[in-house]
Design a protein that fits this description.
By secondary structure, the chain is of the alpha+beta class. Helix content is about 40%, strand content about 20%. The protein contains twelve helices and 13 strands. It has helices at about 5-20, 25-40, 50-55, 85-105, 120-130, 185-190, 215, 240-255, 280-285, 290-300, 320-330, 335-349, and strands spanning about 1-5, 70, 75-80, 105-115, 130-140, 145, 160-165, 175, 200-205, 210, 235, 270-280, 330-335. The strands form three sheets. Strands 2-3-4-12-5-7-8 form a seven-stranded mixed β-sheet, sandwiched between helices. A four-stranded mixed β-sheet has the order 6-11-9-10, with no helix packed on it. β7 and β8 (about 175) form a beta hairpin. The protein is globular. The structure holds nicotinamide-adenine-dinucleotide. Nicotinamide-adenine-dinucleotide binds next to β5, β8 and α11.
Length: about 350
Amino acid sequence: MKIKAEPLRSLVAEIFRVAGCSADEAGRIAEDLVMANLVGHDSHGVVRTQRYIESLRAGAVVPDGSLETVIDGGAFAVVDGNYGFGQTIGPLACRLGIEKASTHGVSVIGLRRSGHLGRIGRYAEMAAEAGQVSIHLVNVSSSTLVAPFGAIDRRMGTNPVSIGVPVDKRTPLILDFATSVVAEGKALVALNGGKAIPADALVTPDGRRTGDPAVLYGPLEPGRAPNPRNGPGALRAMGDHKGSGLALMCELLAGALIGSDTAGPPPKRHGNGMLSIYLDVERVAPGNQAMVDVVNYVDWFVTAQPTSPDSEVLLPGEPERRRRAERELHGIELADATWASITDAAASV
Ligand code: NAD
């Protein structure tokens, strides 16, 4: 089916409001999920509704949470989300980082134990809007889905990384990806009959590469969200040893070192840790020269000759911008199983 963003947003917001979130928080969750669909990351869109509702009901995520300051070191802070919804906690932590970087030029924020933070690029977008470069390294506690390079066994989360760079008066560059070949939600979308995932996205228990999402989810339980913990195989890290190393660093920097949880044993509560670095461009590169150099370089970058006449050189963030323009106009396409999971979630509340 195809549905316009607005009725979908209202429906999803209503589900979260009836389930126990304030109207403000329910609106924030719906806005974030639908925005992920609009920009083409269906993996982080409304397909998550049922799973979020199950987490809320199980007490794994807490409605209307707030940020607890653990350490305030001036330009850096360690804050605890205490498993509040990521759509509430994430923007609070991001605003704190932006505020501190406006004062000090740079800032570092270690966010512990947030509920699922969704699409990490949104935090890079928030910072870029404030004229700041930002880098976000994220881990996923208790979501041990990704095998290290050369291995079969799961050891890491899908540990996303996002970097945002403002580009003078143009739209910012937003790099935002999971360090696995695909985000787990993309396997979920494929399982639900949506876009297929690459044939090397997963590894089977006997070491073969496959694109079959059933390897991740195992047998499905009727009426329940598919659980990626149940499958016999694992997701593979992107970029072979390099992506595997980057994902490991996310576990260490966004998990262990800031006092959040890692994907390691014993099993933890599901959530995200995020280490974010913010740089206020006007403070760290006064004058206009840095931005002139950024613009000049980017303009030259995109003039690289494409490998074939039907391909083109895109900047990070460009595919998302194009998809959003298209989906705002024509609506969001949902797989039948995704729509059924939303109506199941609605019925359940
Ligand atoms: P992806 O593989 O689609 O890569 C997206 C990135 O690549 C974007 O920066 C995009 O602009 C860029 N890109 C795509 N095509 C391009 C092209 N042709 N040329 C140049 N650049 C191009 O993304 P993904 O790995 O599937 O991640 C999807 C989302 O999942 C992200 O928003 C990520 O933050 C999120 N995620 C969140 C969690 C979490 O626990 N919160 C975990 C994993 C992933």
